[in-house]
Amino acid sequence: MQAGNAIYETIADLPPVLPVFPLSGALLLPRTQLPLNIFEPRYIAMIDAALSGNRLIGMVQPMPLQMPEDPDVPRLAHVGCAGRLTSFQETGDGRYLITLQGVTRFAVGPELEAITAYRQVECDFAPFAPDLQSGMGEDDVDRNSLLETLRAYLDANNLEADWQSVSEAETEVLVNALCMMCPYGPQEKQALLEARDLKTRAETLIAITEMDIARSQNGDGGTTLQ
């Protein structure tokens, strides 16, 4: 696959270690784009290092804190996604506005005793090698069920969609975009990330959305797009 100016044909093209950005609720998937506002000094340093290196960063969700765990060094989820830094802008007030393009998921390995302010982990890309192939599993997705669920969610929340763009979108793009846009919590986002394949990811999204609609209709409160 291509991300920016880089081409990743096999997992051998990826580094064994990545700097990681633990961010709760943030979901990056292969071939999607995630804009980020970087302001903490340690992550400013991480971006500087990435720009001078391979431009790859691992997005990983932190696990829920357990006392007496250090809130600055939370445990990490077992699966993250590598993203290539494809857009970079300085704001003039010490922040960076960046965009990451998802490359492939990885299993989070041991953490390095790094001398850097940001954390670094060993990465195992082997379980997710198919991520590098665009459109893998599209034919197995029940697109009609996905669109029916999307329409039901929008109707339940008095929202609208650009249905022409939806109908023209490739199935992989549609599934992954909806997963990233959905207003669900960190656990649901992690389940979508860890789904075995595109078909399973679509089925997981449908199930989560149907439960959310049911809660809303029962008066238990649901989520709404912000």
Automatic annotation (TrEMBL):
What Pfam families does this protein map onto? LON_substr_bdg (PF02190)
What are the residue boundaries of the Lon N-terminal domain, all occurrences included? 18-213
UniProt cross-references to SUPFAM superfamilies, sorted A to Z:
PUA domain-like
Which InterPro entries would you find in this protein's record?
Lon_prtase_N, Lon_prtase_N_sf, PUA-like_sf
Q: Which SMART domains match?
A: LON
For this entry, the protein name equals Lon N-terminal domain-containing protein
Species assigned in the record:
Roseibium hamelinense
- Lineage of the organism: Bacteria, Pseudomonadati, Pseudomonadota, Alphaproteobacteria, Hyphomicrobiales
